[in-house]
Automatic annotation (TrEMBL):
<keyword id="KW-0812">Transmembrane</keyword>
<keyword id="KW-0472">Membrane</keyword>
<protein>
    <submittedName>
        <fullName>Energy-coupling factor transporter transmembrane protein EcfT</fullName>
    </submittedName>
</protein>
<dbReference type="InterPro" id="IPR003339">
    <property type="entry name" value="ABC/ECF_trnsptr_transmembrane"/>
</dbReference>
<feature type="transmembrane region" description="Helical">
    <location>
        <begin position="99"/>
        <end position="121"/>
    </location>
</feature>
<keyword id="KW-1133">Transmembrane helix</keyword>
<feature type="transmembrane region" description="Helical">
    <location>
        <begin position="27"/>
        <end position="58"/>
    </location>
</feature>
<feature type="transmembrane region" description="Helical">
    <location>
        <begin position="70"/>
        <end position="87"/>
    </location>
</feature>
<feature type="transmembrane region" description="Helical">
    <location>
        <begin position="141"/>
        <end position="160"/>
    </location>
</feature>
<dbReference type="Pfam" id="PF02361">
    <property type="entry name" value="CbiQ"/>
</dbReference>
Length: 213
């Protein structure tokens, strides 16, 4: 991997107060920020909330460079959204929308940067446990989340590597040079993942019914 940045910060071991905070409290922080993004109507309030969250992120022991790497992938999209909203609805509304998205990204980054992946998956399985009565399998649900967390960075990294390679050959404007290698790499990754799950007896029904004669 070439080290391109991805959305959200990866886990970094530490002993800060943020690291030691209960997982449920950090989940509530992310959910609360997501809900607040729909309720806050003043860009200044959004700016204050973002500043507080950035402070929490830095209190976890992560530096400003790590915070920037966490939000960098979404900045081009936010720039486009901000310009469009400024044109349509004015600067205050554009600022509020962009800042609210950043609030959600930083809140989620605090969770992922201070919580081991296994603890996150255990938390997801615990949250899904009440749905077992409806036929849900919390462990399989957590496994699905784990595969998603692993797959998204892999596919994004594959695209960035192919794009860099195509650019070096002067083919960065050729859709075939970009799409086909990423498609092949993604299919190969999916097959490898499926084979690994099958080798561990995962991904198949526990009690498959034999077809009746």
């Amino acid at each position: 991997m070439s080290g391109h940045g991805f959305l959200l910060a990866t886990y970094s071991p530490g002993t800060s107060l943020i690291h030691r905070a209960p997982l449920g409290l950090k989940f509530l922080l992310v959910v609360g920020c997501g809900m607040a993004s729909f309720l806050i109507s003043d860009w200044a309030v959004s700016a204050v909330a973002l500043a507080l969250l950035c402070g929490l992120f830095l209190l976890s022991g992560a530096g400003p460079a790590r915070l920037f790497r966490a939000v960098r992938p979404v900045l081009p999209v936010l720039l486009a959204i901000g310009v469009f909203q400024w044109w349509q609805l004015g600067a205050p509304t554009a600022a509020r929308i962009v800042l609210n998205v950043l609030v959600c990204v930083v809140a989620a980054s605090i969770l992922t940067a201070t919580t081991p992946v296994q603890a996150l998956l255990d938390g997801v399985a615990s949250l899904a446990r009440p749905f077992r009565r409806f036929g849900a399998d919390p462990e399989r649900f957590a496994l699905t989340i784990a595969i998603m967390l692993r797959s998204i960075p892999f596919v994004a990294e594959a695209y960035l590597n192919v794009r860099d390679s195509a650019r070096a050959r002067g083919l960065d404007r050729n859709p075939r040079a970009l799409v086909l290698p990423v498609f092949i790499t993604t299919v190969a990754f999916a097959r490898q993942t499926g084979e690994a799950l099958a080798a561990r007896g995962l991904g198949e029904p526990e009690d498959p019914e034999d077809p009746e004669d």
